[in-house]
Design a protein that fits this description.
The chain has about 220 residues and is α/β, with parallel strands linked by helices. It contains 11 helices and 6 strands. It has a 6-stranded parallel sheet with strand order 2-1-3-4-5-6, sandwiched between helices. Strand 5, helix 5 and strand 6 form a beta-alpha-beta unit. Helix 8 packs across helix 10 and helix 9 packs across helix 10. The longest helix is centred in the C-terminal third of the chain and has 15 residues.
Length: about 220
Amino acid sequence: MTRVLLVDDDPMVRRLLTTVLTAQGIDVVGEATDGDEVPRAVAERRPDVVLMDLHMRRTSGLDAIRTLRGTSAPPAVIALTSFGTDETVVEALDAGAQGFLSKDDDPEHIARHVRQVADGAGALDHGAAGAVIRHLSGSRRLGSRQDEARAALAGLTDRELELASYLPHGLSNPEIGVRTYCSESTVKAHLGRAMAKLGLTSREQLAVLVDRAGATAPDTSA
């Protein structure tokens, strides 16, 4: 069962999310009321995923995410907010979040993405995905021209590049595995190594780089 830590300064939001996630078979192992409580809560509760509100009184969710990324074997983080600009989405992903969801998303949608992130995938709602394409595709770090993107991807193995080529289609690890005859764990391992080589923190960044290089898999049919 996926273990989740909720971080939000609004008790009603925490209560609602606990009810929603528990009903979906997800184990809410603890709560934190502000960003400065996160490191201790993570150390004590050992969650697989942290649902992190970005706007809190003492320590912002962005700062809390950055702190977690500096620890040994940090859990995955999904930034959770009731509103967000393109800049906020990009800042959260750059800080190290694996996903960005709205508190207004459908409960089943939130639960599904929590499980995906726990399995090593990313989680972006529709609006956040658009922000990634608009902003990260023009980032110098991800390559502002096709030749730069291709040069960056040249450091990947053939298998890593093959698996990464399906990311721009928004496929999950199991879906990529079906198309490439790999186990889910193999897909996760290869994509993790690819991101580490490129200095990226999310599948979405890798997807944009692959798309810019023109290396997207042409056929996504099962």
